[in-house]
Design a protein that fits this description.
heterodimer; A: 203 residues; mainly alpha; 9 helices; B: 197 residues; alpha+beta
C-alpha cells in the first residue's frame, strides 16, 4: 500500500491497461470500435461508471458484508450505468443509438466489477479514485487506438468524438478495407495490437 | 439469524437508495428523452413526408388511447387547414419490427406519404425499404382502406428486389396503420379541430 495515487493512476495507462494487459472488457472493445466517436463515447461512459463505483465501493467497504458483497457491487454499478444510459439518451441521443445495447452491458463489464472486487474493496478512497480514473483513461485510449486504426482503414474516414464531424482521410477514391469494420476484423486488429504490446513489453 | 437480518437490511437499503435515485433521474430526464427520440428517430421521416407544411408536426402532436395502448399522432397543416395526420405502425420484417410513419389526408382518406423510421433489416438489402423511395412512392395517393400486399402475394405493391420480406413488412405496417386510423377516425377529426388556424 506504499504506492502513491499517481502510481495507481499511471499503472492503468500502460502496465495494466485493461483490454491489452488484463485482457478484460473485450466485448465492448471488439463491438463498438467501428468509429472513433463510438470508441471514445464508450470509453468515457465506462470511465464514469468505473470512477463512481470505485469511489462509492471504497467508501462503503466497511459497511458491505463479505457474504453479499458481489450483489452490493452490482447494485452500485448497475445504478451508475442506468444513470449514464438516461443521461446519454437525454443529451447525446445519436451516440446512444449507435452504442445501443453496449451501454447497459457496461454492468457486466469485467473491468468495472474486477476493479471493485480487486481494488476498491481493499483500498482507500483516493487510491480507488486514482485507480478507477487510470483504468478508465487506459480503456478509453485503447478503444480510441483500436477504433482509429479500424475506422481509417475500414471506412477511410475519421469521426471526431463529441462534435460528430466526419473527416475524409483518404478521399473519395479510396476503396475501404471493409473487413476491418466487420467483427472478424475487430478480432484481428485486437490480436495484432496485443502482439505489438507484448513485443514492446518484452525486452 | 442476526447476521442474516443484517445482510438482508444492507442489500435492501442499497437497492432502495439506488431505486430512489434512478426514479428521480428518470423523471428528470423523461421529457428530454421523449423529445430526443422524436427528433432523431421519427423526426426526419415525419418532416420528409409532411414537407411543406406550415407548422412543425413534431410540436403539433396529440395522443389518443387505443384499447390499452396510447398512440401519437402528428398534425400537418397545409394551406391553412389541419387535415393531414401522421401515425406510426409496425410490421414484421426480416430482422424484426419495421416502424412506418403513414400520413393520411382525413378529408378523402388517401395516403399522403409513408416513410420507414426504425428497422433492423439487413444493411444494403432490406434496409433499402427505408432508403429507396421507389417503394414508399407507390403508396402515395392510394386509399388507406386498401389491403396492401406485395405483388408476389397477389397485391399491388412492387417489392424491392431481393427484399420481399422487408417490403411485405412495410405493407403490413401500412395496413395496420389503416386499421388504427379507421378505428380512431372520429377522435382524430375531433382533435384536429383544435389545430385549425
Amino acid at each position: 500500500m506504499a504506492k502513491s495515487a499517481v502510481q495507481e493512476f499511471t499503472k492503468g495507462l500502460w502496465a495494466e491497461v485493461p483490454p491489452f494487459r488484463l485482457v478484460l472488457g473485450l466485448c465492448p472493445t471488439l463491438a463498438v470500435t467501428k468509429t472513433l466517436e463510438n470508441g471514445v463515447g464508450m470509453g468515457v461512459a465506462t470511465t464514469f461508471v468505473l470512477v463512481c463505483s470505485n469511489v462509492l465501493i471504497s467508501l462503503l467497504r466497511d459497511v458491505i458484508p463479505k457474504q453479499v458483497r458481489i450483489a452490493c457491487y452490482i447494485v452500485v454499478i448497475a445504478t451508475f450505468v442506468t444513470v449514464v444510459e438516461l443521461v446519454m439518451q437525454a443529451f447525446t441521443y445519436p451516440l446512444f443509438l449507435k452504442l445501443g445495447i453496449f451501454i447497459p452491458l457496461i454492468v457486466v463489464n469485467c473491468i468495472v466489477l474486477g476493479r471493485a472486487e480487486a481494488f476498491a474493496s481493499k483500498n482507500g478512497v483516493v487510491a480507488s479514485l486514482a485507480d478507477g480514473l487510470g483504468m478508465g483513461v487506459g480503456f478509453t485510449l485503447s478503444l480510441a487506438a483500436l477504433s482509429i486504426f479500424r475506422e481509417i482503414f475500414g471506412s477511410g474516414t475519421l469521426t471526431l468524438p463529441f462534435i460528430s464531424t466526419v473527416l475524409p482521410v483518404f478521399g473519395p477514391s479510396f476503396e475501404p478495407f471493409g473487413f476491418l469494420v466487420e467483427a472478424p476484423g475487430a478480432f484481428l486488429c485486437l490480436g495484432l495490437m496485443l502482439c505489438i504490446m507484448n513485443m514492446l513489453g518484452k525486452k | 439469524m442476526r447476521e442474516m437480518i443484517r445482510l438482508l437490511v444492507v442489500v435492501a437499503v442499497f437497492s432502495a437508495v439506488s431505486g430512489g435515485l434512478l426514479a428521480a433521474i428518470q423523471s428528470g430526464t423523461k421529457d428530454r428523452i421523449e423529445y430526443q427520440q422524436l427528433k432523431f428517430v421519427k423526426g426526419p421521416t415525419i418532416q420528409q413526408i409532411l414537407e411543406g407544411s406550415s407548422n412543425d408536426p413534431l410540436v403539433d402532436r396529440f395522443k389518443l388511447p387505443d384499447g390499452k395502448e396510447e398512440r401519437s399522432f402528428f398534425v400537418g397543416v397545409f394551406d391553412g387547414k389541419a387535415n393531414i395526420v401522421a401515425l406510426e405502425a409496425f410490421g414484421k420484417g426480416f430482422g424484426g419490427d419495421i416502424g412506418v410513419i403513414v400520413a393520411v389526408n382525413v378529408e378523402n382518406d388517401e395516403i399522403v406519404g409513408i416513410g420507414v423510421t426504425t428497422h433492423s433489416e439487413t444493411p444494403g438489402v432490406g434496409s433499402r425499404a427505408k432508403t429507396d423511395p421507389s417503394l414508399s412512392e407507390q403508396f402515395k395517393g392510394l386509399p388507406i382502406k386498401e389491403p396492401f400486399k406485395v405483388k408476389t402475394d397477389g397485391g399491388q405493391i412492387d417489392a424491392i428486389s431481393g427484399a420481399t420480406v422487408s417490403s411485405r413488412g412495410v405493407c403490413g405496417a401500412v395496413v395496420d396503420s389503416g386499421e388504427i386510423y379507421m378505428r380512431l377516425k372520429k377522435d382524430i377529426i375531433e382533435k384536429l379541430k383544435a389545430f385549425k388556424t
